[in-house]
Amino acid sequence: MTTPTQTHFRTCNLCEAMCGLEIELRGEEILAIRGDKLDPFSQGHICPKATALADIYHDPDRLRQPVRRTAVGWEPISWDEAFDEVAANIKRIQEAYGRNAIAVYQGNPNVHNLGAMLYSPPFVRTLRTQNRFSATSVDQLPHHFAAYFMFGHQLLLPIPDVDRTDFLLMLGANPLASNGSLMTAPGIADRLKKLQKRGGQLVVIDPRRTETAVLANTHHFIKPGSDVLLLLALLHTIFSEGLAAPGPLAALADGLDQVQRAIAQFTPERVAGPTGIPAEAVRQLARDFAGAKTAVCYGRIGVSTQQFGGLCHWLINLLNFVTGNLDSPGGAMFTTPAIDVVGITAMTGQTGRYGRWHSRVRNLPEFGGELPVAALAKEMLTPGDGQIKGMITIAGNPVLSTPNGRQLDEALAGLEFMVAIDIYINETTRHANIILPPTTGLETEHYDLIFHALAVRNTAKFSPALLPPAEDARHDWQIFQELRARMESQPLPTRQSPIGKIDFFARMQPAQIVDLALRFGPYGAHGFNKTRLAGQGLKLPTLKREAHGVDLGPLKPNLKHRLATPNRRIQLAPELFLADLDRVREVWADHAARDDALLLIGRRQLRSNNSWLHNSPRLVRGKERCTLLMHPEDAQKRHLADGAQVTVQSRTGTIQLPLALTDTMMPGVVSIPHGWGHDRDGVRLETAVQHPGASINDLTDDQQIDQLTGNAAFCGVPVMVKPG
Ligand SMILES: Nc1nc2c(c(=O)[nH]1)N[C@H]1C(S)=C(S)[C@@H](COP(=O)(O)OP(=O)(O)OC[C@H]3O[C@@H](n4cnc5c(=O)[nH]c(N)nc54)[C@H](O)[C@@H]3O)O[C@H]1N2
Ligand SMILES: Nc1nc2c(c(=O)[nH]1)N[C@H]1C(S)=C(S)[C@@H](COP(=O)(O)OP(=O)(O)OC[C@H]3O[C@@H](n4cnc5c(=O)[nH]c(N)nc54)[C@H](O)[C@@H]3O)O[C@H]1N2
Ligand code: SF4
Ligand SMILES: [Mo]
Predict the structure, then answer these.
(1) What residues flank ion ligand 4 with Cβ within 5 A?
(2) Is 139 in the pocket of ligand 2 (CB under 6 A)?
(3) CA distances to 6, 76, 89, 479, 656 from 80, in Å
(4) Ligand 2 in contact with 608 (CB < 6 A)?
(5) Which of 268, 313, 682, 684 would give a disulfide with 146, using CB separation of 3.0 to 4.6 Å?
């Protein structure tokens, strides 16, 4: 008898879009992965990466058992042996050198993994180290920073209401490649086209004419790293032309006059030179934005990972506020997710913290319990009290994803002990003494704790595991639990019966926590938001019956009830931001001197996901993608030909890669995608090493950061380009 085929529905957890998938399988063989047309949110949208979920599951290079590095190569070991050895080494190092001698780095997939989201924090707390790092500080830290100081909670992130807005001003984002970020909006291309169909405008500010810029009504090139000036001038115009109209929220806000005074000198004429955008275009943009019925300014990684990332996100929030578009339909809104992560973390005192400690070598400030990862390598390389001697990486590849990756590569090689919780032996994990490999996406049950809270509609969906975990496999959360128990010398909740003696949370499995959080959430039995499903309150059994997920409606104004600042008012002019304007004045006082260096920026590609999907043959097929994009005029000046191999050099390093000429680049700016550079010794990714590319982060500079937040400033790294 043949095994019948089954159809299963789940959410893709690779990027932030949360597309619904329809997966056909026979036994454990995946026959097809399609978009789920009945998912009310994604309505059948899908991208080529979804198939990678199957490729990862079947990948022969994926680790399925713990391994230990020895003089003669990697040897498989048992889980028990691995856990014991890891715990013993962490304890040994902390006893010898102090708590901070162990560092932790958590990468991006943590946020896409329910078990890791719930169980890695208690594990990390057990270590009691101040050397905690994550991908946040090469990404969205400035968003959290602005949210914390203005609204009182680092997770009160304003989301652009794309489905209802009349005017979307987008800076430093390319959702047609990235599928949207801090804006979960599956099928974003269709949403943007609908905006235009209803008479709305999309304006894109980007040093490259990206896929999204091509779709836009208007695109302006901008010199990398100068967005802060454009935003200041937009705000300046709005004030000076009497266009400010904050509406009812004004009664809830402090500091508008201070803002107006502080930005008085940033006229469109003054910023035209450094930004490359003519004064008249800035004025017109300000008028169009302020004049639109509804409008929203949205900035993402291109304005977050720059030297004024913190100020950019403050100014974006201000622009939305002064035009009456904050917390208002069609503007920048706050979600009401079924699991209220903002409310829960507010109750547990995790609204955000700043500057409780500083990094030892560079004195960079802690935010939200973490230090900027740009400081990590020097903390390992600089001898002295408090030097990092051991490292734990959790779902991260900082050698390819953080600035001056080569320096970190060398630093990791010098550690006394390293453990990686990861599925691959890659550029980072090759330095580990032990790798603990968890199950992968399709073997885990999933609820997007974070991305439902960042979505353009309120939605909820639970995905049961599609495939049973392999025998003797561990989920991420079980690895954290086991390590934590060993660190604390406590008995462990067994796999069969998760009842242990650690604490309340440790007794429950991820799905049970989801159930509890739903029941006590805004749509739960005691919540205010009644819906079709929530007659008796939303809970996991109800949600499980809705295999395609549920739509809980459009975003609703709610800021008044959510503000978590000490006086429960919006802080428009936090002192830190005002003070940082001095740095803007200094940096641009001599901008003319900077004009002839080529400035390097990154780019995302639809078939990559940061550094870790290049082992899927179907995602790397075709033309070489890791190329240097350059405007033909810049190439001519340097006698460089299209397709030629070039050498790119910065303060920190040199790489070689092919050149691709295109007038989609702003003259003076070049671009390299991140996440490549798989040709390092010992990387065990058979397909990826055949398409290695080169790492942009061998060129980016750990010293180039946003001084205010500590975030890496990837945008606009000065480079030289030569033939060969
Ligand atoms: N120059 C430049 N650098 C950048 C960026 C840029 O735009 N330009 N972007 C930055 C951004 S936004 C980010 S988020 C970072 C990403 O930086 P990282 O998070 O450090 O890197 P990733 O490539 O996402 O690596 C993810 C790792 O997790 C492993 N993994 C995948 N799934 C799982 C899982 O379920 N469990 C476990 N335990 N491991 C898993 C993979 O094998 C891989 O090793 O890169 C940043 N770096
Ligand atoms: N396919 C794919 N999707 C992804 C990822 C991936 O690696 N691949 N990564 C995921 C992750 S971790 C994240 S954080 C999101 C990020 O999502 P997005 O923020 O949409 O990321 P990008 O596509 O890198 O867009 C950043 C844009 O900023 C522009 N830019 C660079 N410098 C400047 C500048 O100085 N000023 C301005 N105005 N623009 C600038 C770049 O040209 C680029 O077009 O994407 C997620 N989705
Ligand atoms: S857009 Fe993102 S969520 Fe949707 S299928 Fe692609 S990777 Fe998955
Ligand atoms: Mo990211």
Answers:
(1) 139
(2) yes
(3) 36, 12, 14, 11, 44
(4) yes
(5) 313
Average pLDDT (628-638) is: 97
CA nearest 426: which of 183, 37, 109, 77? 109
Ligand 1 centroid distance, CA of 156 (Å): 24
Helices and strands, counts by H and E, the chain = 24, 28
Q: What is the DSSP letter of 349?
A: T
Ligand 3 atom nearest the C-alpha of 11 is 3
530 vs 519: CA distance, rounded Å = 13
The tens digit of pLDDT for each residue in 679-715 reads 999 999 999 999 999 999 999 999 999 999 999 999 9
Which atom of ligand 1 sits closest to the CA of residue 444? 35
**Ordered structural domains, the chain, with CATH:** 1-46 (no CATH), 63-129+372-443+472-507 (3.40.50.740), 158-338+575-584 (3.40.228.10), 593-723 (2.40.40.20)
**Residue 283 to residue 268: CA distance in whole angstroms:** 7
436 has pLDDT over 70: yes
C-alpha distances out from residue 121 to 107, 126, 155, 480, 507, Å: 13, 9, 16, 9, 15
Whether 494 shows a pLDDT value over 50: the answer reads no
Ligand 3 atom at shortest distance from the alpha carbon of 35: 5
Indicate the average pLDDT of the chain: 95
pLDDT at residue 498 greater than cutoff 50: no
Q: Is 602 in the pocket of ligand 1 (CB under 6 A)?
A: yes
What's the rounded Cα separation, in Å, for the pair 137 and 129?
18
Cβ(438)–Cβ(482) under 8 Å? no
pLDDT mean over 507-527: 91
SS3 460: strand
Whole-angstrom Cα distance, residue 77 to residue 417? 17
pLDDT of residue 348: 84
How many Å lie between the centroid of ligand 1 and the Cα of residue 107? 5
Burial of 566 (0-12, 13-18, 19+ CB in 10 A): exposed
Distance 15 CA to ligand 3 centre (A): 5
Residue nearest to atom 47 of ligand 2 (CA): 178
Mean pLDDT within 591-615: 88
Here the tokens at position 307 are: 């030297």
Neighbouring residues of 548: CB distance < 8 A, sequence distance ≥ 6: 9, 20, 36, 38, 39, 40, 461
pTM of the model: 0.97
Cβ(188) – ligand 2 distance below 6 Å: no
